[in-house]
Amino acid sequence: MELEHAIGFSGNVASGSVHVHPSGDYIVYALGGNVVVASLRDAHQQHFLRGHDDHVSCVSLSKSGRYIVSGQHGENSDVLIWDFDSRQIMYRLQEHDLGIKLVMISDDERFLLTVGADKKMVAWDMQTGMIVARQTGIKDTACACWGGRRLDTKRRPTTDYQLATGGVANLTYWTLNPMEGSFTREDCTLGNQVRNFTAIAFSFDEDYFFAGSSSSDFTAVHVKHKVLHSTTGCGSGGVLSIVAMRTANSGDRVIVGCGDGSISVFEGQRNGAQTCRTYQRGSAEACTITLDGGVTALVLRAADDRSGEIKLLAGTSHARVYAVQLSMADFRAISAPPAECRMLTEGHYDAVTCVAYPPDSSEYFATASADGTVRMWDVNTYEVTCMGSCQTRITGKPTCLTFTGDVIFTGWEDGKIRAHEAENGQELWAIDHCHVDGVTSLTSSRNKKFLVSGGEHGEVRVWEIRTREMIVNLKQHTSAVTSLCLFADDSHVVSGSRDRTIYLWDLQTESRKASLTQRMGGISAVILLPDHVQLATVGQEKSLTFWDLREPEPLKSMPCGTEFLAIAQYSPPLPSNADPSADACASTIVATGGVDGVVRLWSFVKAGVIAEGRGHSGAIRSLKFAPDGRQLVSAGDDGAVLVWNVFLDEEGDLGGAPEGR
Length: 661
Description:
One of its GO terms (cellular component) is cilium. WD repeats lie at residues 93-134, 345-387, 432-473, 474-515, 516-557, 613-646. InterPro entries: PQQ_b-propeller_rpt (IPR018391), WD40/YVTN_repeat-like_dom_sf (IPR015943), WD40_PAC1 (IPR020472), WD40_repeat_CS (IPR019775), WD40_repeat_dom_sf (IPR036322), WD40_rpt (IPR001680), WD_repeat_EMAP (IPR050630). The protein is mostly beta strands. 51% of the residues are buried.
């Protein structure tokens, strides 16, 4: 078992949500608890840097691309320094508490700056991993930027380093003296202006730094005097990212990404005293573009002074990465082509609640997320082939999903079942008032004629797809129905509930045929084994339990020490010359996932764990095997959709898998 591909992108991490390696071949970004190094040329080439035990909160890439630094949320608050080439951890830095807010590497790659939620700022030696300087009790800090060497009065570089930090109602200039191991602070003079600063960049010559704020403007501060020189409005939704560069005549070009998805180019010319008081926005058509989601990262890839073309990579809070082309904001913008963008990757930007394959194809699968979107993914390219969306403030979140291959059916917290066309994602129809307080489980018949749904109050209902009318109503559960499994001939359905019961229903006679009761804790998920007599459940009892529908007590129960929320199974088809009396469940592989974020594979015969997969940093909400059993898809609260390769030998056990990446 190996992690083949990770779909998703943590678009809200600090220090820039996405970084481009200087080679231009790779991008680096966070996804849940992983740092991902992904090729821009081959969607199948990804490397996963695993070392954190909680969500990654910030990522930084050194100027040469040699180092990656990442910090995490949580009590451990570790900062990891990675070697890019070997993908190995060089240092694990443990100084902060309560989580890491920022990590920044100096341009010469000598020092690392970390800022923690404990209001502590630390400078580290990148070569030794030792602390150089420490400052406690700092003001709330949301952004930081190194500014190279501090200049003396004759503009000669000193041995001290300069940097700037910003946060809630504060903008501070710092000097780091590495010889003495100390920070020196100077508050910037902003007059009567009060801002919450969110992004900072130094000018090309480090005479200015530009600080973007939540008020959707950026402030230019003169480094020598620490005085505000100008404030320029831009976009809306606050400034989330900012890039500063040099113009052809030694002026300043500032590129700003805002919360409304806009990216705008501004330019300002300096006077004889080398100061600038105004910055002009370029033409709306060539120098501004709007993306989907707040622009949390901007990376300059190329700037051509002859053509006036600027190429950027942009990451957004909606888990999308774009290649963007804009024009410089000068006379060339008049004749420049319109601004363009091309989406490179996308994912869900909130918890992924459910995943499903169609019954007869392993080439694509569907997911639904708390971000209100339903998407279908091509396994060969990992691109979205169609997407539908709803406004979650009206519909609530999607809670369950079933996929016939032609239509994606979803259940929602508003009590509706919705159908989306698999070709274009368009909503075809919705059944109102299916369940009071929400649909909690959903499955479709193999003949594609009806749906079976479970509700928050224990109802199991059957809906005819053609007429969209309820044809069966079964009510004996006393709590939410969390899982439904139809027999292969669509004649019976098994339901599991939070009330600790498992029922077998005959849909033709509309009667209950069997009842099982879990000793402790509610049922979270149920799978039906190939013989249609045995089944497996997981739930609040923190065990994997196997049952026989003819026996009131479990066949076997395997404690696991953590609550499982999702379960899936794959049974290799029996060969044509197999003994008719052969056990159809003998080669069954069961996958589980739960609150600890670990995917486990179990052997039904061996009654034990045969493989584990670590990649999620949050609870796993859904698991599905591909119909051919070669891949397993997991999805969870961290917004990640992970595709795992599963290697089975001829007997159905795990075979010799290549070493995981």
